[in-house]
Write a structure and sequence with these properties.
723 residues; alpha/beta; Rossmann fold; Alpha-Beta Plaits; 4 domains; eight-stranded mixed β-barrel; five-stranded parallel sheet; binds ligand C2E; binds calcium ion
């Protein structure tokens, strides 16, 4: 808009020459610069070519009339704010209304009062300039807000009306702002850490009028998080009642991110990106507090690279740095191994590796239930260090020494644990390369005995020291064998035949269980094949599958390929699983179970009643057989609580169409009770102990009653065919 020194530039439009002359004369006299047009067309031409501060426009004209001119001007960007005074006939309310409808600012009635006209024009100009000023300052405010990323807003208490600046809209997005009218939705979007502070601040403002300043993170609809600083005050009316809240909100995302980066730099080692000494120590204090509360045990491993200084000197600092980075990565990866996280509760060492000095690293291991767990991790770390590094075609082999201190046994504080782990590390260094040592001597002994057994078992599995025994499952109605269970034994060269209880837990801890499971499955299949080849009546044989075996990728496919390779049918094998294994990851478990069943394997739920015993979930799993745990069977004839549980398990299994097997049946009373309560399939010493393959083959060959059913009716005298 053009501003004129003498008060403004006017465009006067009227087809009546007389009116035009008089009006122009009086306006010029009052100091205005006046241009004249005698028709609508001429008015539009002048409007387009020149700039005016105000327009006086006659309504009635030949050609384009005043209404049309006004409408067209309003559609122009530069005409949007131009004050237009329409000249209308006196008391012609219709034309006055129409004039406003077309966008006129005001009207002047004819005949024109010349003195008044100049006042109306002056007033029109003044108010339009005021509007222009406000608009301009609003625009520059918006501009300032955009630059500072500040949005202002207002919330009226009376009608909950929320108004805000464009910048606030831009920051949060209009849809989010709309959704956030509901305080619950708003708070739900505030990051969990900040929620309480925001809620408290807003409450205090609304209830007591206390102004607030808070910073908080808020999740946008697209999932991104915006960090903001917000300040708000309450506005009260004369009676002191709060009527509205005024606030502004500033987007400080970039600043917060920069702070986070700085913080990360302060807490992490710049070379390897691992936690640094300070961070590690803070983390450990927090974890120790938790461990104290929950009574759990954790361990600190202090790992030091052997002779790193001479390696560094030989290779140069740059290669030395690369080596440390590669090391850091390996250490990090080896404590994040899936099998550690799969333990329940997971042994959480993840994120807990720190570099505390040039070539010294520490690891915090949580939820250490056994000393051997910490030893296992130490062993892993030592192995990962000892793998050759390849740098620029050169092979570099490093070794490390590890000291271990265990909370609370070796110290109550971070410092004490740290010191003791370091001391133990020196003992490890003295003992030789790639060695770990506990601070506590007893633990060293226990761990080394365990390690010894573990290496023996590893060797035993591969060199054929495992044996299978078979225990029949009997149908007590007919006395015939309807299946068997394969149970593993270890023929130890010095210690003799070991029961599974003496080595299965170790195999599970050390990861050897997977190899052991594979051996059992294959040996069972080969045995079945051998019996079939010998012309013996085939029975279904169960194998016990431990959790790590079951968790393998495509276990169903692997078992199937093995069975086919040996030349038997999958239907001859039943897989026994435990409840806890099933509960670990129900969705995946169901998929694996279905895959096994689709391939033809039978599925049995072992030790039922000892685990979660949530009968409801049973329905979800495609299980053929339930095995009532021995502990219930032992007590059935005592008539106590266990008898009731056994009965309800039988009832439930039958209802779900599963075969129910009672295991650990030792007495006729137990067998009779179970048979009476509709559990005829039984397994236990009463019928036969687990037997070596050869003896078991003799049972198969007999192909006859293994047990006299009449015994259970109490008439016969208890003669067993196989004691
Ligand atoms: P389980 O699967 O519950 O096996 C049944 C256990 O009960 C066997 O012990 C068996 O000898 C014993 N038993 C059978 N009848 C009676 C009885 O009347 N009285 C008593 N007191 N015990 C009876 P075993 O062979 O010592 O096996 C113990 C556990 O070791 C098994 O319990 C199973 O969890 C595990 N196990 C055995 N073989 C394997 C295997 O090949 N792989 C895996 N992963 N675990 C196995
Ligand atoms: Ca079993
Ligand atoms: Ca069992």
């Amino acid at each position: 808009m053009n501003s004129h020194p003498e008060g403004g530039r006017l465009l006067l439009v009227d087809d009546d020459l007389m009116i035009r002359m008089l009006a122009a004369e009086s306006l010029r006299h009052a100091g205005f610069d006046v241009r004249e047009a005698d028709c609508g067309e001429e008015a539009l031409r002048l409007f387009n070519e020149e700039d005016f501060d105000l327009m006086l426009l006659d309504v009635m004209m030949p050609g384009i009339d005043g209404y049309q001119v006004c409408e067209q001007i309003r559609q122009h960007a530069k005409g949007a704010w131009l004050p237009i005074l329409m000249l209308t006939g006196l008391n012609d309310t219709d034309s006055i209304e129409r004039a406003y409808a077309c966008g006129a600012t005001d009207f002047v009635t004819k005949p024109i009062n010349w003195l008044l006209l100049t006042h109306r024009v002056r007033y029109g100009l003044r108010s339009s300039r005021a509007v222009e000023g406000v608009t301009r300052s609003q625009r520059s405010l918006a501009q300032a807000q955009r630059l500072a990323r500040i949005g202002s807003w207002e919330w009226s208490v009376r009608d909950s009306r929320f108004t805000c600046s464009d910048e606030l809209q831009r920051m949060f997005g209009g849809a989010l702002l709309a959704a956030c009218r509901s305080p619950a939705v708003f708070l739900g979007r505030v990051q969990a850490n900040d929620r309480a502070a925001v809620e408290t601040a807003r409450r205090a403002l609304l209830d007591e009028g206390t102004p607030y300043q808070v910073t908080y993170g808020m999740q946008r609809l697209d999932g991104s998080v915006i960090e903001v600083f917000e300040e708000a005050v309450a506005v009260a009316d004369a009676s002191g009642r709060i009527v509205k809240i005024e606030g502004f909100t500033q987007d400080i995302t970039e600043r917060v991110e920069a702070q986070r980066r700085i913080q990360h730099l302060a807490l992490h080692d710049a070379l390897t990106g691992l936690a640094n000494r300070q961070f590690f120590s803070e983390m450990v204090s927090v974890e120790l507090q938790r461990a104290r509360r929950t009574g759990s045990t954790c361990a600190i491993l202090h790992l030091d690279i052997d002779h790193f200084k001479s390696v560094n000197d030989a290779l140069g600092d740059a290669t030395g740095d690369r080596l440390l980075c590669a090391l850091a990565e390996r250490l990090h990866a080896s404590v994040r191994a899936a099998d550690l996280l799969a333990l329940s509760p997971p042994m959480r060492a993840a994120e807990m590796v720190a570099r505390i000095d040039g070539d010294a690293f520490t690891v915090l291991v949580l939820e250490v239930r056994l000393a051997s767990h910490a030893a296992m991790i130490a062993d892993r770390l030592l192995h990962s260090v000892a793998l050759p590094f390849l740098f620029d075609g050169r092979e570099i082999v490093l070794t490390a020494s590890i000291g271990i201190s265990v909370f609370p046994r070796d110290g109550e504080t971070v410092e004490a644990l740290w010191r003791h782990a370091e001391q133990a590390m020196y003992a490890a260094k003295a003992a030789g390369p790639s060695t770990y040592r506990f601070f506590d001597e007893d633990m060293n002994t226990a761990a080394s005995a365990k390690l010894q057994l573990e290496s023996e078992l590893r060797r035993g599995i591969s060199s054929g020291e495992l044996r299978l025994h078979f225990q029949p499952k009997i149908d007590t109605r007919s006395g015939r064998m309807i299946g068997a269970e394969a149970l593993v034994r270890w023929q130890h060269p010095q210690r003799g035949l070991l029961a599974p209880g003496q080595f299965i837990p170790l195999a599970e801890e050390s990861g050897l269980i997977v190899g052991l499971g594979e051996w059992v499955a294959r040996a069972t299949a080969e045995q079945l094949r051998a019996w079939a080849d010998a012309g013996l009546q085939p029975v279904r044989v169960s194998i016990n599958l431990a959790s790590p075996s079951f968790q393998q990728d495509d276990i169903a496919g692997k078992l199937y390929a093995m069975v086919k390779g040996v030349g038997i049918r999958p239907e001859q094998i039943v897989v026994e699983l435990t409840e806890s294994l099933l509960m670990a990851n129900a969705e995946r478990t169901i998929a694996v179970l279905c895959a096994l069943r689709d391939k033809g394997f039978g599925l049995s739920l072992d030790d039922f009643g000892t685990g979660y015993s949530s009968l409801g979930y049973l329905k979800r799993f495609p299980i053929d057989e339930l095995k009532i745990d021995r502990s219930f069977v032992t007590d059935v004839t005592n008539g106590g609580k266990d008898a009731a549980i056994a009965m309800s398990i039988i009832e439930l299994g039958n209802q779900f169409g599963m075969r129910v097997v009672a295991e650990g049946v030792e007495t006729r009373e137990q067998a009779a009770f179970l048979l009476r309560h509709r559990c005829p399939i039984q397994q236990g010493f009463l019928f036969s102990r687990p037997l070596p393959a050869k003896e078991f083959a003799a049972l198969l060959a007999q192909n006859d009653r293994l047990f006299e059913p009449d015994l259970l009716s109490g008439t016969a005298n208890g003669l067993l065919l196989h004691p």
